[in-house]
Each structure stands twice: as structure tokens, then as C-alpha cells.
Design a protein that fits this description.
This protein is α/β, with parallel strands linked by helices. Helix content is 40%, strand content 12%. The protein has two domains: 279 residues, Rossmann fold (3-Layer(aba) Sandwich); 85 residues. The strands form three sheets. It has a seven-stranded parallel β-sheet with strand order 3-2-1-4-5-6-7, sandwiched between helices. Strands 9-8-10 form a three-stranded parallel β-sheet, covered by helices on one side. The protein has a two-stranded antiparallel ribbon with strand order 11-12. Strand 1, helix 2 and strand 2 form a beta-alpha-beta unit. The longest helix is centred in the N-terminal third of the chain and has 30 residues. The chain is globular. The C terminus is likely disordered.
């Protein structure tokens, strides 16, 4: 009853707020005209559809870049793909990277519909996707339940469940009920698998961080290789894309790392360029690059290719059970070449999750309000049958290995046999 009332209130708020949303899009469109283009798509009015495609929702630029290796693997397998976005940055990136596939009709890039049942009905009528993937932790109630009503299995992909969100959800209790409407989740780590299982999400597979599968241009690799010798024999640690609330924590960690007998080279990169001037006085003295020239997002990847340890933005002072300090961190160095590719290859390339058009009857959980512990039990039973995650461990190798996104694409698009209890099958051996 509580969820039912929330959905009714949610629908009312969206309908009343549509004029405000239109004004917002018009104002943003004055700076970026793409906001105002194809406005009918946001109301569920699309042109030519792409029936039977895999639907990927990447709200903005970061999510779209995470999805690039997976989309490429799906296209290489002969699948058709439709991506939805809310911001021009995500849509523009998809159109740039996959321009050839869009031109040949193998891929479509459109706006995500507004959070109303009738707008999503228009989307599903036009595209009739075989399944949907929501990148990261975008949880929209109408998206989830409209997919359920249309018979489209919807999965969270590259998913993580932050601890602060878990604490908030434990008090409110609504979002876990909505998450149980997903057909499953492809998560970044064993820790994330446990978190999603604790709120009742089932069909969980640990597929790792898709961002590490993004291809790095050869020119950037060459630039990083040229830069690395100039930094000397010391190891290099990069704190990259650090948000303002995390700055003090990571600066303290950097000070501790630099206190060892042979300190590494520490590179600290705030997420927002305007934070450089404020943070410079707090950073230990060392080599600095001239300010004033913004660095394009894509150039960061080349710099990371030459580092020994890369600590991405979501890390915390304890990462994988090791305190983020001194020798404990410095001893973790990067793996490259054939060893890295071997280490990154999935343990079971035939991991599969049902979700093809042939098994729609069991494609979604029967009841999104199932007990919160049910997902944990599903995960335990899956592991008891010998299933293994695609990746374990707190650190990922640098080398982009095509095995991981291809295995994920296979898991997403090849239906497997149904479990004996007539529910969606968890990842299983063939």
C-alpha cells in the first residue's frame, strides 16, 4: 500500500511539474540547442523505431562512456542497440562514438521519456526492446514499473549501492522496494553484490568496473609512455576525479603516503577544474603543471596508463580490506601486457542471464515487494552451485580486455534455461 501511494504521488508530481520541466529545458536550450531538439521524444513520440534492440539508458556523459565497451561488444555480436539519455552530453557522445552504426540503422540515440506511464508506453511501442540496461544507479520508479508492464526485463548495469544511500533507504524503505522490480543487476564488486542482495535484488552477477574497459587511444598511450621516464624510478599514485567532499580525506591519505622512506609521485586531480586554485596551497610542494588550460576528459585516460597505482573516485580510506596508506598502497603496482589480459579474462565466459524474448514469461520478478533477504538467499544459492563472479579483488588491471564486455554482452542477450522454481535463472554454468 505504501509503495502504491508513493507511485500515485510520484505520478501526480510529474504531471504537475511538466510545465516547469519544459521551462527548464527551454532555458538550458539557450546555452545548448541540443536540449530543445527532438522534444517530442521526451513525451514518448519517436520516429522510426528499432524493434528487438537492446536498450541502454545512460543518463549523461560519464554513464555513456562506461557503456561504450559493452555497446561495442553487443554490436559486434550482431545486436541492435538503442540508447536513451537525459543530457546533451550523453547523447552527443553516443552520436559521436557510434556515428557509423547509427548511419547504417544498427543503433538509435534518443531522449529518455519523462517519468510518466504514457510517455514510456510510447517508447516501448516504438522500440519494443528485448531487454533494458540502466547504467550505474539510476532508479526511476516509472521506468522500472513501465518496463515490467511492457514485459521488458530491466537490469542495473555497472551498478553500485553507496553506503550513504543504503543508510537513507533503510529509513525510508521505498527505493529498495523499487529496486526489487529490476530483473537483476550487474555489479562492480562482491561488496556491491552483497548490498544489492540485502535489499532483495536477485540475479546478481559481479562483472567489475566497465570504465576500465574503455579503449585508450594509441596517441595517449604514447604520451604517457613519454612522460613516465621523466618522473624517475618512483612509483606513481593518481587520485583522479576527486569530488569536493572527498578532498580532505584523499589529501590526508596523500600526506601519509608521502611520509614513507621512498615516497612515490602523487598526482592529485580534482573533479571540478575550478577547485585547482583552492587546493594548490594545501598540496605538498612538488612539480606542477601550468594552470589555465583545461584538460579534455579523454586525455585523462592516457595519463593513467603510465601510473603504477590508480585510485578512482569511489575509493575510501579502506579499500578491499587494506588501509590506504604508505607501503601498503605503494606495493600494489600495475600489471600490463599478456599477464594483465589473462588476469582480466572472465572465469566463466558463458555466464548467462535469461532475458531474451523467448522467456519473457519469467523475465521479471513476480513480486517487487518480496522479502528484503530474498536476494541474499538467491546469491548464496548461486554460489553454492559453483557460480563465480567475473572478477574478484579490490584492484583491477589497467589493460582493456575485450573478454569482459563480450562476456557481459553474452550474459545479457543469450537466454538460458529456466530454474526449477520458474524464476529468472541466476548466472550459471552451461
Amino acid at each position: 500500500m505504501r509503495l502504491w501511494l508513493f507511485l500515485r504521488l510520484w505520478s501526480l508530481v510529474w504531471h504537475l511539474g511538466l510545465p516547469v520541466m519544459l521551462v527548464y529545458l527551454w532555458q538550458r536550450g539557450r546555452k545548448d540547442p541540443l536540449y530543445a531538439q527532438a522534444a517530442g521524444e521526451r513525451f514518448g513520440r519517436y520516429g522510426q523505431g528499432l524493434p528487438g534492440a537492446v536498450w541502454i539508458h545512460a543518463v549523461s556523459l560519464g554513464e555513456m562512456r562506461s557503456a561504450v565497451p559493452l555497446i561495442r561488444a553487443l554490436l559486434d555480436r550482431g545486436e541492435r542497440v538503442v540508447t536513451t539519455h537525459f543530457t546533451p552530453a550523453g547523447r552527443r557522445e553516443a552520436a559521436r562514438v557510434f556515428a557509423g552504426d547509427i548511419a547504417t540503422g544498427r543503433m538509435a540515440v534518443v531522449w529518455v521519456p519523462f517519468e510518466t506511464s504514457w510517455a514510456y508506453a510510447g517508447f516501448f511501442k516504438s522500440f519494443r526492446p528485448k531487454l533494458g540496461l540502466v547504467m550505474e544507479i539510476e532508479i526511476w520508479p516509472r521506468m522500472v514499473f513501465a518496463s515490467r508492464r511492457a514485459g521488458v526485463p530491466l537490469y542495473m548495469c555497472n551498478a553500485q549501492y553507496p553506503s550513504d544511500s543504503m543508510a537513507r533507504d533503510a529509513r525510508l524503505g521505498l527505493r529498495p522496494a523499487i529496486m526489487r522490480g529490476f530483473a537483476g543487476a550487474f555489479v562492480k564488486s562482491d561488496l556491491q553484490a552483497e548490498r544489492f542482495a540485502s535489499v532483495g535484488v536477485r540475479n546478481i552477477s559481479v562483472t567489475g568496473e566497465l570504465r576500465f574497459d574503455q579503449p585508450i587511444p594509441a596517441a595517449q598511450l604514447a604520451a604517457a609512455a613519454a612522460l613516465r621516464p621523466g618522473l624517475g624510478p618512483r612509483r606513481v599514485i593518481a587520485f583522479a576525479s576527486v569530488t569536493e567532499p572527498e578532498e580532505a580525506m584523499f589529501l590526508a591519505a596523500a600526506q601519509e603516503i608521502l611520509s614513507v622512506r621512498t615516497p612515490p609521485v602523487v598526482i592529485f586531480v580534482p573533479r571540478a577544474p575550478e577547485r585547482f586554485a583552492a587546493l594548490a596551497p594545501q598540496h605538498p610542494a612538488g612539480s606542477r603543471f601550468p594552470a589555465g588550460e583545461p584538460v579534455a576528459d579523454g586525455r585523462a585516460a592516457g595519463g593513467f596508463a603510465g601510473r603504477d597505482v590508480f585510485l578512482p573516485r569511489p575509493c575510501r580510506p579502506r579499500c578491499g580490506g587494506r588501509r590506504l596508506s604508505g607501503e601498503g598502497v605503494a606495493q600494489h603496482h600495475r600489471t600490463s601486457g599478456p599477464q594483465a589480459a589473462s588476469a582480466c579474462r572472465p572465469s566463466h565466459p558463458d555466464h548467462r542471464i535469461s532475458g531474451g524474448r523467448g522467456d519473457r514469461g519469467g523475465g521479471l520478478p513476480a513480486d517487487p515487494r518480496r522479502p528484503a533477504g530474498a536476494g541474499r538467499a538467491d546469491l548464496a544459492r548461486s554460489r553454492a552451485r559453483g557460480h563465480r563472479p567475473l572478477h574478484r579483488g579490490p584492484f583491477r588491471c589497467d589493460s582493456a580486455d575485450p573478454g569482459r564486455p563480450r562476456a557481459a554482452a553474452q550474459a545479457l542477450t543469450r537466454p538460458s534455461r529456466s530454474c526449477s522454481d520458474n524464476r529468472n535463472s541466476t548466472s550459471r554454468r552451461s
